[in-house]
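Entry for the shared binder. Reason: the reviewer on the internal report wants the predicted structure included alongside the sequence.
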Amino acid sequence: ATAWMVLTHWGEHHRFRTSFYLDESTHTLWIKGSGDPYLISEELDVVARNIRQKGLTQIKAIGIDTSLFQPNLLLPGTGTSDNPYDAVPTAVAANFNTVAIKTVDKQVVSAELITPLTAYAESLARLHRSRELRINTGPNPHNAETYFAELLAAFLMKNGVAVASQIVFGQHPNKPVFYEHVNTKTLGEILRSMLKYSTNFVANQLILVLSAEHFNRPANALDVKLYMEDTLSRKFGWKGFVLEDGAGLSHNNLLSPKQLTELLLEFRKWKHLLPEIERGIYAKTGTLTGVSALAGYLVKGGNWQPFAIQMNDPVPHNLRNRIALELFEHQ
């Protein structure tokens, strides 16, 4: 549902933009958070390289403007554990608000070759004392925002910009944009990855940004619910359904297989974004405690037939695939 809404609104070739401002009086580089869900390390390296090429050689502070999202924003199902799929959404976010770290010869190092080890990441490693782990940045959005600033500083220094350790939060200065970063990935590329790997963080970021744009106010949980339910009701005439988040993590969500197949009929123009999970079956999984679901297309002879399977009981993990294969053989 989230993929359909953002594709309908922005289009497959949309790219997220993030604006940077330079306050020369305080030597602060400000970032206005845009909710871009795909500012991974590789992207931040490009950001830092481009900023250095604009002539910046030294800053005393990094400023973070998070006003696009409501302060301390949480969506249902996020922030309940340290697992990557529970990462909280934030206006500025690096690496899906997750940290990958490991210990080698009693030394904490980054578990990703391209990602520098920051002070916050090291503090998580000391806290968990695990040989190798990937965890989210915790339920407090401020941690994720701080981690973003630390990573940006590390990449700036890698690219030749001297950076002091100060991080400030507030509203960006009323100055012309110093640098506008256009993400190297299109929305379609982001969604293809999201649908394949079930990246809950990306789905929630997308719907928050979309709702903030629609209501022209800071993104919040109530607006997400209002936007999703109103958009789908107007398009399909649905009644008696509930959607509280973009990722499907809320146990209050209610959507029927019939509604999913109606949605899939409309999604056919973007069917190429779904992964092939079995021969001739292109679909998206859905898993919660006590819930197992699979929805997508059965493909034979160029005919893409939508299907949806939902089981609100504890069942074997591969049962949904076995049912889909039976449907495929007998369609």
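Summary line for the report: Residues 124 and 145 are 15 Å apart (CA to CA).
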